[in-house]
Amino acid sequence: MAEAYIVDALRTPTGRRRGALAATHPADLGAHVLKALVERNGVPAGEYDDVIFGCVDAVGPNAGVISRTSWLAAGLPMHVPGTVIDRACGSSQQALHFAAQAVMSGTQDVVIAGGVQNMSCVPIAYAMTAAEPLGYTDPFSGSAGWRARFGDQPVNQFYAAQIIADKWGLSREAMERFSLESHERALRAVAEGRFEREIVPIGGFARDETPRQSSLEKMATLEPVMPAYPAITAAVSSQTSDSAAALLIVSEAALKRYGLTPRARIHHMSVLADDPIWHLTAPIPATRAALKKAGMSLNDIDLVEINEAFASVAMAWLKELDYPHARTNVNGGAIALGHPLGASGARLMTTLLHELERTGGRYGLQTMCEGGGQANVTIIERL
Fold it and tell me: Residue ranges of the Thiolase C-terminal domain (predicted)?
């Protein structure tokens, strides 16, 4: 089978909600990484086959096919197309899969996969808020088929984060310790300049502004996000944030044609779903299934990036898979670095690639929980 290669991977710094990037139009965020990616590599701008972006809540400034809008906002050739993927939090990881699959099929040679999200501009679930006057209070209201199958069970991420904590015996204090370490790892990575190669500064803003100094004492004072979920506070949850990220995916023919040097090979791609009521547990069976398909074990994996949607998600995965926390999210996760929904998958892969290069690791695995109880898994081999 033909191979797909990662030639480059870049991201903007991550801005806090209402922070440094809040006033930046999503198309301009996307344009910033696209322009940098094109300028850094030897592929003529007119010879890109497609631009595939992840974006969630594609309304308002996110509408109008944001990948295409971003490409044009970057001043790049008008004939290059773009499309948008929404697999909830895994949107840009799925964009990477589709880009790699296009290359591996032989139908395209040079594809950009990435994602963008300005959550200051379009808050999470904004589209559902806009639909409330029509009588829809959540994505499932009004569906007779859904109610017949799942009844009135709650379908929300906070409920799922709480029942995961309960099932795996994760106390609030344990999750706060995990969260504090996420911030400490991210702050150390910033201080040591680990992110400098992957970040494209924008408007004089060159560092992630989401990691912060905290303490267990401060975390203990926070109220739960909802009274019904006593262990789930802002401290143990990912941060809403603003960012964009993009990767250049090419075929072997493109490597030769443009004299490119591959940095990694896409070794495995898969996606699997689990119970939508549990919502956030799919990374566990998805990782097991991916390793089986790839003929690998976690002993073969040097580094893991799993999205810290909530501390309970990553902690349950670590318990079930018995993988070392010391090799997981080594530079912090979404609790410290933010979770800009449609951009997160590409951000995680960008960081994973750079960290494999920094440490000399060979295989990296990325997974993340996604709406509807789904999870993508990607395994890359550093070259």
Answer: 261-382
Tens digit of each residue's pLDDT (9 = 90 or more) over 57-103: 888 899 999 999 999 999 999 999 999 999 999 999 999 999 999 99
Stretches where the chain sits below pLDDT 70 are 126-137
What 8-state DSSP symbol labels residue 126?
Answer: H
Residue 246 near residue 34, CB atoms below 8 Å: yes
What pLDDT is stored for residue 99 in this prediction? 98
60 vs 20, 54, 65, 150, 211, CA distance in Å?
Answer: 20, 15, 11, 32, 29
| pLDDT one-digit tens code per residue, 184-205 | 999 999 999 999 999 999 999 9
Angle between helices 66-73 and 26-40 (to 10 degrees): 60
Q: Which residue in the list 89, 121, 267, 279 is annotated as catalytic?
A: 89
328-to-20, 52, 220, 333, 375 alpha-carbon distances in Å: 28, 27, 25, 9, 17
Q: Is 339 tagged catalytic? A: yes
pTM of the model: 0.96
User: Annotated catalytic, 354?
Assistant: no
Q: Which neighbouring-strand residues pair with 367?
A: 306, 377
CA distance 363 to 179: 26
Does 89 qualify as catalytic in the annotation? yes
The single residue of 32, 121, 183, 369 carrying the catalytic annotation is 369
The H-or-E segment that residue 261 falls in is none
C-alpha 229/C-alpha 249 separation (Å) is 42
Domains and CATH numbers, the chain: 4-125+240-258 (3.40.47.10)
- How far apart are alpha carbons 206 and 217 in whole angstroms? 30
